[in-house]
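thought: fold this chain, then report.
action: predict
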Amino acid sequence: MRESVRGGETFRSTADVLAHLLRDQAVVMVQIVRDSTARVNSVEDGLLANRVGSSRAKLGSLRRVLVRLQRLLAPEPAALFRLLSRPPSWLSELDVQDLRQAAEEFSAAVADSAALVERVKILQEELAALLNERTNRTLFVLTVVTVLALPFNVIGGLFGMNVGGIPFAEHTGGFWIVVGLVTAFTVAAGAWALGKRPQ
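observation:
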């Protein structure tokens, strides 16, 4: 506004000044929404390419800024529309028209901001789902490794005890019988674990 006055712009009334301020606010809001949209687009592209990185922090800070702006600026157009529905007598028809147009531009910018907040929220949900899926896969791999190592640990522990009555101790092929049993149990456990693999 200061730059406009210094540049020689004149205003015919206080309502014209208010309309100018609203238009300036709308321009700034549109620029913020455009910059935020570009950042959201880059995060979404990374998400589609399966690159999570620091996307959660970016989306969180972006959503906080947009919600704060929305809370701060959303009541302005609504209040102005209420005023313009029954304009005071000192407002000229041209002033009412300018104010209505400026309020509509500003209201559209606020609506774009609200739509972007919803888009960020959906992206955050997708990101959380992707991270849960990765965690589930990691836990599945750890479970499979544990299941496959279990027979060796159990049999090794049993046959490591120095007590009498160990099966196949006197049998000439006892070692190979135990190896066969452990291998068969491991294969069965691996088949069962792979059958439970998350899709």
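thought: worth noting. The CA atoms of residues 63 and 117 lie 6 Å apart.
final: tokens above.
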